[in-house]
Amino acid sequence: MANGLLIMLPGPTNVPDRVLRAMSKPLIGHRGPEFRELHERIIENARYAFQTEGDVLVLTCSGTGGVACAIENAITPGDKVVVPVFGVFSERIAETARRVGADVVEVPIRWGSAPRAEQVAGALEGAKALCVVYNETSTGATARELAKLCELAKEAEALVIVDAVSILGGDELPVDKWGVDICITGSQKCLACPPGLALLSISEDAWEAIRANPRRPFYFDLVRAREFYEERRETPFTPAIPLFYALDEALKIIREEGLEARIERHRTCARAFYAGLAAFGLEPYPEPEWRSNTVITVRVPSDVDVEALRRAMKEQYGVLVAGGMGKTKGLVIRIGCMGAITAREVLITLSALGASLSSLGHEVEMGEGLEAARRELGLA
Amino acid sequence: MANGLLIMLPGPTNVPDRVLRAMSKPLIGHRGPEFRELHERIIENARYAFQTEGDVLVLTCSGTGGVACAIENAITPGDKVVVPVFGVFSERIAETARRVGADVVEVPIRWGSAPRAEQVAGALEGAKALCVVYNETSTGATARELAKLCELAKEAEALVIVDAVSILGGDELPVDKWGVDICITGSQKCLACPPGLALLSISEDAWEAIRANPRRPFYFDLVRAREFYEERRETPFTPAIPLFYALDEALKIIREEGLEARIERHRTCARAFYAGLAAFGLEPYPEPEWRSNTVITVRVPSDVDVEALRRAMKEQYGVLVAGGMGKTKGLVIRIGCMGAITAREVLITLSALGASLSSLGHEVEMGEGLEAARRELGLA
């Protein structure tokens, strides 16, 4: 609860008090033993969350900064880069790669669905990298064929760069097992930490490409960041120390809960959301097989204005949800099902949504919706 | 005081409790009215600190990230860029410009001094930009001729990009009056806020160059950041909200104190440091005319090991100071005289330094040193 508000955005999301409180700990120097110990623990716990034995680095920037960093390190002018585009964030990756001078091949995918292996296979020949958004925050669609896409990319000897900003820690993503070369997430989504940090895992194949890039960006130079970590557990530039405190706490919580249990909790809450929405007679934006467990995107009935609905949910019930982005703007609301999500937040959000729709003249079956959600949550 | 430690580093520095506490306020959405109001107040107060009527933008990254952002926006491959080099941070700017493909002309300046107008004048012909570190954190020298350097650059029609990371808010820097085109600072230095944010001011001439750059970096695209601010008081990507809370509080404190009084306080504390050090028989690293009011760099007597001295100050007296960087490594200690600095911190630091030197076998005139400092502080 924030200012009496429940933050049900697809990031930033609700942060446990324990994480919030960690930020007001006194500052420490970033070149001393206290920071090194904190940093090492963060990296070890982040490896657990990424399911990787390889390198993980933490950067002071947003999740998009982390994605840009990956592209600017691994891609050089003229490289062929394949990007399946099915929402705003995949458009962003394509644009980021164009900015570094890459030859970007976009594979257009219907919004509300996600790339199938056969849609991408034909484009991979001669590609330096395949860039995939694992969870399209703008549509609520998850690229469920990611493991297959990784296999195809390996066959084509292309790197796989995955934007997992709105999903890592909330759904299945075994980085090493699937062979993701660079995986990026943000602190403020399923990790349940405030915004301001990006985390990246980097495979040996990715390092090879990165080291061969003669013009890595200065602030985002991953080789330098790795050297500083390996040699002294430091960052090249001053890190956002309070956010490192928060991330440390957030990752400890993930270890305490266990990744598998955490993913299962996200799935259960997502199922409850979808069941409740269906009983309300509302239609999720994504097609069934691609529906995200971390970003619930649902069409707003045509007789209701999206902004009026969001306003009612916020002002009357203290529940904050997001509108659409790009093609989904004005069509949908998007609900974060992330991080600290529990039955409580699902039920409050569904209640606020149902009641707000009713107050705007669109009657829904409130009791049935909540009952359907409670069944999925094991409460009925 | 942090963990019982006084953070006398040249950044991060001590942060008032009020600023620290602001970070644990509940999160808000970054696309809502609460954030917009916060953001607008931050920008207005930052303009006051920068003494500019022009644009100021806040980015989620370190101070070095802010400097890299400025270079990557304003400089394109082949541009001639002049960099007076007199320490580690000017070397960093030169390297950053080389990474974007600039034709970098370094003007070597003796470490411990700072560029004079006549040393730079000859190099400016045909230059796209002059990049100056106003305060070399690695040596404790301030480029006191910055106003003259700006004039010269204007005559040569070159932009002036100033790294003011370790000085803005702690010494004279009227951005508009001197004609600085892009001025960059970090949150964790003289603004007395935790690390993780960079602030940049941008002149109309700078915007012209930036807009003409066809390949601005994606995350650091200043045109996009300005559009988001102008159109809706938002940031293009998720900002580090807790750090925005902290910066808001830190800038309010600057307005309450008044910039002139704040600068005068830094000067007084710096004079007290230098007077105390002189009475101890210690020699500042920079030559007298360039000595910084925000980073006090002093040679460690040859019979004392720098690391042993820092350890003694930390372990016996709870005072954290930095060692050298680059050519000053192993030769000096560097003391932050920044942000929340008052007589109290000056006297504790001098006491800890004097006592630690004595305990390491290098006797100093403790009483005389503290007396000299107290006189400058108006306490004797």
What is the CATH topology of the largest domain in chain A? Aspartate Aminotransferase, domain 2
Instruction: Please provide the count of β strands of chain A.
Output: 14
Second rung of CATH, namely the architecture of the largest domain in chain A: 3-Layer(aba) Sandwich
Task: State which percent range the strand residues of chain A make up.
Answer: 15-25%
Termini separation of chain A (Å)?
Answer: 26 Å
Biggest interface and residues each: A-B, 62 and 61 residues
Report the radius of gyration of chain A as a whole number of Å: 21 Å
Q: How would you sum up the major sheet of chain A?
A: 7 strands, mixed
Mean pLDDT of chain A: 97
Q: Structural class, from secondary structure content of chain A?
A: alpha/beta
